[in-house]
Write a sequence for this structure.
């Protein structure tokens, strides 16, 4: 088997594995061991990450771009997969976050119902995320994006109570608007140039752009793409579904959303806009929307009384940093801005997943994330307190932790474009620290109330399967803070790939010659 | 992966040395810990029941009453930025039609921006 084949296997294995999970559940119940299903899901997730490791060895280690033609039909006539550094980064994050969510779920969902469907949806979500990252065909990207979205709606509704159904319904309606916008955008482009291959689209749209400038249909398609993918990443003003859905979903799933689908959404947004419409033209709008998201997200997080809603709004704010980083890259800061943005995307996936997993432990022990009902948990949950503290310091951009390294890059990049951008970014970081100090104080410090003491006394001890992923993610926050170069080893090829429109086209279409 | 590149001491063209900074901070923390340890040796802490209880104006306060209200935690900031909150909070009411209005208005803003910038 050659390494190119692993790109399709990384999608097919979680997809088929997902559909086999209910069968494993039935089999397990028959033999009196229902855990077979859970460990099967774990095995599938591990195998997918192992594939990623080998893909990474080729893409990052040897600087290759992997291509795979489905049914032997070469691009641009057939559907193909194209994995460069940027696609690998998104795929790696998607598959790793799924593995973290599955390990955590082994403990968190121990007493859950309908776990056949839960693991089925989680693994198909993983296949969707990797599919979006690896595909070289814009219509396939839409299909995988829809797979990712549909499974997300189901997972948000998992608890099937009023809040979960409401959150899922809102997410479905708004998410469907987003995917319709993407489909419409693809339709407009297909009508213009008659191809769906991303590399071929890039060539043909580039030719139109060179001859007639940025035409009205192209502007319309660009707006549809930014709005469609912007909904998934929770970019303001398209973020409204996010707090409700994040609050309602199981914490393991929220971690997968915050760390996985959001990253894949950013990937899809940047890949489609940079490849199809050119990098420089997008920069001002990304900077504008990035700052709006950064500021409004932080101010909304500051006044939240529910921990998961606070984390959701902080995610909106951090998404702003990513967009600003990438945006200023095109406004004169160059590679350092794009690198900072993508490094922050990687770091955000790590600490945001960690923080949502910590929220899940609080739900597991106390049964609520309402900060007014919590307090004094540090004595009862020292590991959760420590990991939450690490996650909070990382997201606030405190030295030692990974968030600092990527924010520092973004500060340097913004400084080269406009010092006012740097000042705003630093002030919002201070606000981030402020609302996380509030969360720490409200949830972990002080004296626990009688209700909290009772809930903790009645609950079971926290399973190690929940703590291990949290400790691992906290370790990564410190490791990438002390040795940021380790993260940049993956981020640098991703940044170069994002900006290398010509190389992408040559690699993909060269296979057709 | 090149291990020497990963373990290099400089980041961002030598503006930031994360490894050196980490050790410097850990060293600073160690010195602070030594000061704390030394001060406790000179003046050992002797917590009495009165010291351990939470006091508010001389009255013993219940643990539930010591918890700050999450809504009012940053009320000065909310007062200063009252205009911003007056504008953005009604839009987060939880009503789906309001949310749809956000999305549609967001799309209009994006389209207008594109037309102005690229048109």
């Amino acid at each position: 088997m050659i390494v190119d084949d692993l790109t399709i296997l990384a999608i097919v294995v979680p997809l088929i594995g997902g559909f086999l999970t209910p069968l494993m559940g039935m089999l397990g119940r028959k033999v009196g061991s229902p855990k077979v299903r859970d460990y099967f899901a774990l095995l599938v997730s591990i195998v997918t990450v192992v594939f990623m490791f080998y893909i990474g060895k080729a893409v990052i280690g040897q600087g290759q771009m992997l291509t795979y033609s489905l049914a032997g039909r070469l691009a641009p006539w057939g559907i193909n997969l194209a994995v460069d550094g940027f696609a690998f980064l998104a795929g790696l994050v998607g598959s790793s976050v799924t593995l973290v969510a599955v390990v955590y779920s082994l403990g968190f969902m121990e007493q859950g119902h309908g776990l056949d469907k839960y693991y089925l949806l989680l693994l198909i979500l993983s296949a969707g995320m990797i599919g979006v990252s690896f595909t070289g065909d814009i219509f396939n990207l839409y299909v995988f994006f829809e797979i990712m979205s549909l499974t997300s709606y189901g997972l948000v509704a998992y608890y099937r109570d009023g809040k979960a159904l409401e959150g899922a319904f809102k997410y479905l309606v708004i998410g469907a608007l987003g995917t319709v916008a993407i489909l419409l955008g693809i339709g407009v482009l297909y009508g213009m140039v008659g191809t769906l291959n991303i590399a071929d689209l890039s060539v043909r749209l580039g030719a139109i752009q060179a001859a007639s400038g940025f035409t009205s249909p192209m502007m319309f398609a660009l707006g549809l793409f930014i709005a469609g993918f912007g909904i998934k990443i929770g970019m303001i003003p398209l973020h409204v579904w996010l707090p409700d859905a994040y609050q309602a979903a199981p914490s393991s799933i929220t971690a997968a959303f915050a760390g996985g689908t959001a990253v894949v959404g950013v990937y899809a947004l940047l890949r489609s806009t940079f490849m199809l419409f050119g990098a420089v033209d997008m920069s001002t709008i990304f900077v504008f929307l990035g700052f709006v998201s950064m500021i409004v997200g932080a101010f909304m997080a500051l006044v939240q009384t529910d921990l998961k809603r606070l984390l959701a709004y902080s995610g909106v704010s951090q998404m702003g940093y990513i967009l600003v980083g990438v945006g200023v890259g095109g406004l004169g800061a160059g590679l350092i801005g794009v690198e900072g943005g993508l490094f922050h995307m990687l770091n955000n996936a790590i600490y945001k997943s960690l923080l949502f997993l910590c929220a899940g432990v609080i739900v597991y022990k106390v049964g609520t994330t309402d900060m007014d009902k919590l307090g004094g948990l540090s004595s009862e949950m020292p590991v959760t307190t420590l990991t939450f503290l690490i996650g909070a310091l990382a997201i606030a951009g405190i030295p030692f932790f990974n968030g600092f390294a990527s924010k520092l890059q973004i500060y340097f990049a913004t400084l080269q474009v406009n010092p006012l951008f740097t000042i705003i970014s630093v002030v919002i970081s201070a606000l981030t620290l402020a609302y996380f100090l509030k969360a720490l104080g409200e949830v972990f410090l002080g004296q626990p109330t009688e209700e909290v003491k009772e809930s903790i006394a009645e609950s079971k001890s926290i399973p190690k399967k929940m703590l291990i992923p949290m400790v691992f993610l906290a370790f990564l926050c410190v490791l990438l803070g002390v040795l940021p170069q380790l993260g940049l080893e993956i981020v640098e090829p991703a940044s170069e790939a994002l900006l290398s429109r010509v190389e992408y086209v040559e690699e993909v279409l060269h296979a057709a010659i | 992966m090149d291990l020497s590149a990963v373990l290099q001491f400089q980041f961002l063209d030598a503006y930031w040395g994360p490894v050196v900074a980490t050790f410097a901070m850990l060293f600073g923390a160690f010195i602070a810990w030594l000061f704390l340890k030394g001060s406790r040796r000179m003046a050992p802490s002797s917590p009495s029941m009165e010291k351990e209880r939470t006091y508010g104006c001389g009255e013993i306060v219940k643990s539930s009453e010591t918890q700050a209200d999450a809504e009012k935690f940053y009320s000065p900031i909310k007062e200063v930025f009252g205009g911003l909150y007056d504008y953005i909070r009604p839009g987060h009411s939880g009503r789906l039609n309001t949310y749809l209005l956000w999305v549609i208005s967001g799309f209009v803003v994006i389209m207008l921006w594109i037309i102005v910038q690229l048109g």
